[in-house]
Each structure stands twice: as C-alpha cells, then as structure tokens.
Amino acid sequence: MKYLKRALSLTLLTSLAFNATTEASEKPLKMGHIKDANSIIVTSMNAMTKKVAGDYVNYTLYVNDKVMIENQPYYRVQTSPDINHAIGYVRADELSIESSKSVSPSTDTLQLTSSTKLYSVPDGTESQVIDRAPKNETVTIRQALKVGSTLYYEVTRATGLTGWMKADQPAPAPAKKTVERAAPVQPERKAVAKTEAEPAVITTPVPGARTVNATFRAALAAQMKLTPRPQVSNGIKWSNAPRQAVIDAMNPGKIANDPVNRYQFLTLTEPQGLSVNQLNYLLQGKGILEGRGQAFKTASERYGINEIYLISHAFLETGEGTSKLAKGQKVKGAGQKNYYNMFGIGAFDKNALKYGAQYAANVGWDSPDKAIIGGAEFISTGYLSESQNTLYQMRWNPDAPGQTQYATDIHWAAANARYLAQFYQQLGINGTHYQFVQYRQ
After folding, report:
1. Helix/strand/coil (H/E/C) assignment for every residue in the chain
2. Which CATH architecture group holds 102-175?
C-alpha cells in the first residue's frame, strides 16, 4: 500500500478543528524541526486527537501560535506560512526553533557561481529540494529572510519556478542585469510553454460536471511540484511517476467515460442502507475483516459514509484483511494490548507498521471494530466534511490542487474504484449519485 506517501498530504487535518486564530501574523513565522519521530502531534485541541510525527522530522516546518495544552506550552507547526497547511500542535520541548526576520536584499538579481539547490521553504532539508539551478544562471530575488544567523533568498528562475536558497553566493549579477531584468522574460515564456505543451493534454468535457477554478495544466503543475512527487509502483518499489502517467491518472474526462473508473466520482457521503448480512457477504474470507459487517454498518450510519466505500478502502489498505497492521500490533509503552489500524492512518512509509500501530495506540484502537469505526470518523472529519467527498477529490483535490490529498500513489483512487465497481456488481446494484468535475479551460 502507498501508506503516507500520504505523509505530507496528511496536512490531513488541515481544517481539522483547530481551536486557534486563522489571522496571518504580520511578522515572519519562526522555523523549526521536530526532534523525534515518536513525538506526538495534537491534531485537534477540541477532540485531543493525536498522531506521531513520523516523517515530519525530516522536514523544516513553520512554527506559529503558542498555546497551552494540559498546562504545557505547544506550538502550531505548518508546512507553509498558510494556516491551512497546519499539521497540528507539538510540545515546545520537542521542537528546535529558530527565529526569522525579513531583511532587504542588496540586489534584485543574482548570478549563481555554482549549481544551487532550491528548496520549498527557507532552511529546507534534502526532503524539500524542489529544483537545482545551474552555474551562471541569473535568478530574480523575490525576498530575503534571515533564519537564525543564516540568510536565505526566495528566488525565481527563468523557467518560472520559485524556491528558496542559501544566500551564500559571493557575486551578485552585474548592475546592468538589474536594470535590464525584464530581459529574461522571453526565455521564461519559451520554457513554460514547452513544459505545458509536452505531452499533449486531452481533457474531454464531462456533461453535467462542476467546473473548478483551476485549469488542468495549473493543477498538473501543482502536483508535479509536490514533495514528495506523485508516486507509482512497479510492484517492488515506489518511484516518482512520469508526467504522462500523472496526466492519465488525473484526467477527469478519461475517467468519467470508463465504466469502472467513473466510480472515482461516486458520492461517498451517502450510505447505501445495506444489511449486516450483505456486508458480511462482501467480507467473506477477508482475514481480520471477515464477519465485521456490523462495525462497517455502524461506522456508515454514524458518520454518513458509503459503507461499500469503507470496505473498499479497508481492503486496499490492509491487503484484504491480511496485513500485520490490520491484525494488531503491540506498542512499546502501551501495555500488552494489540492495536489495530484498518485504513493505514498515520502509517508513514519510513516504517508503516511502527507508525501506524503507534497512531492506533494514541487514539485507543484496541479492537478491530474500534479501528473501523474510528478510521471512518477520521476520514469523515479530515476529508469528507471538507467537500472532498469522492475518491477523485480525496486524491487530487481539484478545488485546491496539491493540498490535503489522501495519498501520493497516482493509482490510489483507481484502485479503490475497482473495488467499488466489483462490490456493486456482486450486490446487483449500481452507483447512482456521482459528482463529476472538470477543469477550467
């Protein structure tokens, strides 16, 4: 399973019931790092839901408001300056924090003296490298930020890509370059046009579809700039997906016209009202999930979720009820109980079993039924209640491309759709409520 290659898209509970101001600070946010992968992130102050830090230790984060939780100081951490990219609150003593302040750059452009990595954030880590600019290229400086004692520039390349670099280049571009900084515009246009034109994108209109604000090309560009990039598996290992594969996976016209893939647009917030016996029929021979129709029915009714989808999602994440995480794991420091996780929640790729079990222990999923019902609550709160109520929207978030996406596996939605189509066929019924989308021309 592509467990959190979901990680950074688990900006998860971005709109996650944070009890904090959404006003932007006038001062630059602090920058920081979570010290330990086992540190706890409080994702909701109201419900006190939590998850382990996991792969977030490998990223530089923005540090925002200080709050008190259970008489301890915590800071909100974010993957960008935007509060909508908040991931939760971390205890102050589990963070290393550097102050930051805006400064005026001494020049508008800079000629690079060596090949230079560009990062998605100032003081970024290797996990946040988004590009590399070649030696002698001239970049435009957008702003300068001092983090601790180190100066960083946000720069834009001639290709149009913007990122952060250490300001340790000794020689700024000659003065005449500053005066003539409009000169790079022509190559920038050529580079962008070439990137967007290859390969060709065919977006077939979808009758009755809702049109989102983003164009397909803009949405595709947002996906390709993510860290980590959209992923694909060869059955053995995961790697960055080719651009054409991403185009094929997210093209709504192509998907909507396929009788199986169109289930990616099935509305997931409408329970089907199936009986426990019908659900158990689908669960026959499926390992730890067999006979748990009542738990799926309870989850469906309690959180208003299509129960066939819940089973499909659980099948995908647990290897049809056979994964170690689904069958229960003991967690160090959490007693002798087994803890269960049926939807791969918090299961970071670095060690999916460890982190998935730790998350389950943090939220008390000490039985398979609790994991099914609790996982449904998590999905409902983190996604379905935020208008991402189809598989396609959960994966690609066309209303805000690149943000709050459930997985980075480009075939995640398609794999779920195959299960849905199969189950509807087994039950002799058809999916009837769809929410198709198309991108603005």
Report:
1. CCCCCCCHHHHHHCCCCCCCCCCCCCCCCEEEEECCCCCEEEEECCCCEEEECHHHHHCCEEEEEEEEECCEEEEEEECCCCHHHEEEEEEHHHEEEECEEEECCCCCEEECCCCEEEECCCCCCHHHEEEEECCCCEEEEEEEEEECCEEEEEEECCCCCEEEEECCCCCECCHHHHHCCCCCHHHHHHHHHHHHHCCCCCCCCCCCCEEEEEEHHHHHHHHHCCCCCCEEECCCCEEECCHHHHHHHHCHHHHHCCCCHHHHHECCCCCCCCCHHHHHHHCCCCHHHCCCHHHHHHHHHHHCCCHHHHHHHHHHHHCCCCCHHHHCECCCCCCCCCECCCCCCCCCHHHHHHHHHHHHHHHCCCCHHHHHHHHHHHHHHHCHHHCCCCHHHHHHCCCCCCCCCCCCECCHHHHHHHHHHHHHHHHCCCCCCECCEEEEC
2. Roll (2.30)
